[in-house]
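Page 42, continued from yesterday. The earlier attempt failed because a stray header line got pasted into the input along with the sequence. Redoing it now with the clean sequence only.
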Amino acid sequence: MTDLHAAAKRCLDAADPAEKLCLSRTTWESLLAGQLRADPSSRAPEPIGAPGRPAKPRLVNARQVPQRGLGSPEGRAALVHAVAHIEFNAINLAWDAVYRFRGKPDAYYRDWASCANDEARHFAMLAGRLAELGHAYGDFDAHDGLWAMAEKTADNDTARMALVPRVLEARGLDVTPGMIDRLRHLGDTRTVAILEVILREEVAHVAAGTRWYRYCCERDGVDPAEHFFELLREYMGVSLRGPFNLPARREAGFDEHELDQLLALMP
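This time it went through. Structure tokens are written below.
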């Protein structure tokens, strides 16, 4: 196999987490070695559907996911599981960005393949921590909000770049520091160390979203700052909860005008 799109689809379709992690790593390594490249003449992408994923966790409405305190081992395991589920979805989102959107510069595909490899590594770290806590991925219910946005934006690369990395994944930049502080206070240094790695690397992933969102806006002749909020209203139609991690968002490419408008959206 030499076509990156086909290799990305194979990663996307893998349902077993261990297989998905292995394929993600080897696909990234093959891309780095020059053995894969995006072939613009390859078969057009299939309509978006559910990605490969295991039978568990059971997917429920976000309101049905129980809220557990971090004071108990079970509560900390549930938190690690929730973050692991986000990372597992992020692997699929990154590979779908490679598979679905054609005709992009090589740097685009390299960015999202790199993100997929990072997300796979994050998931592996969290799965290991879950095992230390006596649990496994699938032991707790989860929701499907990240992939639902992928489905909504399957035919609009500009919206995908705006709303998945710059809204949904950027939320991790906002909430992870608080998780780290609470877990450090509880003495859970193992989970803290993993979350610190994830937080640091997720800044680069959101920055990739910013970079390729602005590329799409330049191609389409639209103002990126104004269009971002138009897309936000069109696809989400809701105010955004704060607080926002302004330093991390600046590092990820948000400008001051965007940050001011985000703050104005807070209820």
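Notes: The chain is about 65% helix and 0% strand.
Reminder to self: strip header lines before submitting.
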